Amino acid sequence: MFKKILFATSATEICDHAARVAFNLAKQYSAELTVFHVLGVPSRGYSQTVVDLKTGEKIEVDDDYQAWVLEELKVHYTKQLAEKPDTHMDVVVGWPHREILRKARDLQPDLIVMGNSAGSEDSAVLQNLVSGTTLHRVIKAAACPVMVVARTAASFWGGISNVVFSTDFSKISDTAFDFACATAKAVNGELHLFHPVDISTAHMGTPLAQDVIEKQIREARQRMRGRYVSKLDDFKDYSVEAWEGIPYVEVVKYAREQQADLLVLGHDTIPSSSEEERLKSDIEQIMVRANCPVVVLKRAPIKKS
């Protein structure tokens, strides 16, 4: 299912959850795994002085220092490398999201795996430059699915067997469905289709009557059956469900109830000139709270020849 996996790491405990999943996936599917680390951000222009993403200190980077960081990266993942010695390791200098996307363009992986340090007490430099802005920018621009592993609970799994797909019926959700469906079929697992009916007063303005809520739930189930079930062909291990509530809460609850090994979402951003544009709050909350890995698709993966 996966032939190439790119694991982008800060080389700290923040990404250990994601590392566990990335290495497990690579072993399970005999995939080529690349562990990629951006060690620092150039302080100005083409200067050799960079801001270290772990400490926030300015450091003069030469070939020897870069080689030392690479060895430190290997030490950090000693246990994992012992089980998958053919793993590629790479360390570069630059802005993390740009370098990760550049590496992805070169490798053309089937999947990018990243951690998310939401709630972490690590340094502000690492929090802001690596996990926050970088994660969101990579998701928005990546040509392949991005898997986010934010919590310890999300990394303790035995592989993929239960896939939950949550839809908002947007065009990108159709792409996310294709990925979720292909994954469930490839692992001979179960596929659970879900739609959260948003009844929050902040979204709707005023509380909805229960009859209206139940009508929207019925319509959502019918819409999923017409839009997605018709594409399942002879695949029988699926379910269709819709609940009312706060969307991110219901998606996380549903994935937990189904004991999901993987949660798949589509994400469609509104064009903005702001460089600090964040993902929709529901998507962000799901990534932070889910107790399984979350795959987010911004656009259809590029088909390889």
Tag the structure with descriptive keywords.
305 residues; alpha/beta; Rossmann fold; 2 domains; 12-stranded mixed beta sheet; 12 strands; 23% strand; elongated
Describe this structure in words.
With 305 residues, the chain is α/β, with parallel strands linked by helices. The chain folds into 2 domains: 4-155, Rossmann fold (3-Layer(aba) Sandwich); 162-297, Rossmann fold, CATH 3.40.50.620. It is 40% helix and 23% strand. It has 10 helices and 12 strands. The protein has helices at residues 16-28, 63-76, 78-83, 96-107, 124-141, 171-186, 201-204, 210-227, 247-257, 281-289, and strands at residues 4-9, 32-42, 49-52, 58-60, 88-93, 111-115, 146-149, 162-166, 190-198, 238-245, 262-266, 294-297. Strands 1, 2, 3, 4, 5, 6, 7, 8, 9, 10, 11 and 12 form a 12-stranded mixed beta sheet that branches. Strand 3 and strand 4 form a beta hairpin. Helix 9 (247-257) packs parallel to helix 10. The longest helix is centred in the middle third of the chain and has 18 residues, at 124-141. The relative contact order is 0.14. Residues 118-131 and 269-278 have low confidence and may be disordered.
